[in-house]
Request: fold
Amino acid sequence: MLTFDDGEYATLDQLIPIVEQTHVPVTSFLITEHAGKKKVKRYKSKYLYFESHTHGLHHAGGAAGYRGMLPVVDFETGVADLKKSIDICGSGKAIAYPYGDYNENVRLITEAAGFLVGVTTQFGNARPGMNPLALPRIRMWQDQTLEYFQRNVAPAGTL
Reply:
């Protein structure tokens, strides 16, 4: 599964022509308070899925993990934020936690909002039997090579 966080215009502008040409489905984890409705409408594609990266909780200020707000926000505020994000994205299947922060508070809020899958920034491949609300990912950074990425996502023994 290819995912892109934040839903930045520059990323989506480059992504749409590629997915339309290759027919490879991708998920954009969208911060919906940043023109989310406009982006969902503008970048509509049968190969691009929008899922939550929260509505207005993707900012620093917490005291846990990388100091994102989702781990420390009160239950009602957290659920309301995620439900607003779901409404804008048109889906509530998956969430990428801001800064990858995940704790018991995040689990309770995420479950109450109805998400099936949640991804952290923990390095690794998702495997059967893992907690579906705390899945690891292989992240790609600007300074990494394609070969590095391929080594990390390829099934064992295939490269």
Observations:
- Residues 2-153 form a domain with the TIM Barrel fold (CATH 3.20.20.370).
